[in-house]
Amino acid sequence: YLKDIEYVGVLCKDLDKSLEFYCNVLGLKTCDLRPDKSLPFRGVWLWVGEQMIHLMELENPDPVHGRPSNGGRDRHMCLHIKNLDGLKTILKTKGVSYTESMSLKPQLFIRDPDGNCLEFQPLDMEPSCRVE
């Protein structure tokens, strides 16, 4: 039975621009475990708690433009956050737009430079589904 997610692979057109977003806006730290010599593309692994996001500089088959205005109606990953209001402040300061959940739950959605959607919800929020 499945227990966790090890990592999520995210395609990016410009690795440096994506690193600026994920590290300097969201505060993620890089992981030194990526085997650079054995992979035929640029990339960086980022820690999200005990899991990772693998940024991979590869051609993206998905369009950047024309995606739903609310990321909750698009492919997305959901990340827990300790302080949602603190994230809102950081996003406003950095000029990153976000949308709040249409369900009126304390969640927000942003898009990275390549149009990939990230959802954020507080750690203490009840999950929308649970596998026992």
Automatic annotation (TrEMBL):
Residues 4-123 form the VOC domain. InterPro entries: Glyas_Bleomycin-R_OHBP_Dase (IPR029068), Glyas_Fos-R_dOase_dom (IPR004360), GlyoxalaseI/FosfomycinResist (IPR050383), VOC_core (IPR037523). It comes from the Eukaryota. It holds the Pfam family Glyoxalase. SUPFAM superfamilies: Glyoxalase/Bleomycin resistance protein/Dihydroxybiphenyl dioxygenase (SSF54593). PROSITE patterns: VOC. PANTHER family: GLYOXALASE FAMILY PROTEIN, VOC DOMAIN-CONTAINING PROTEIN. This is VOC domain-containing protein. It comes from Ceratopteris richardii (Triangle waterfern).
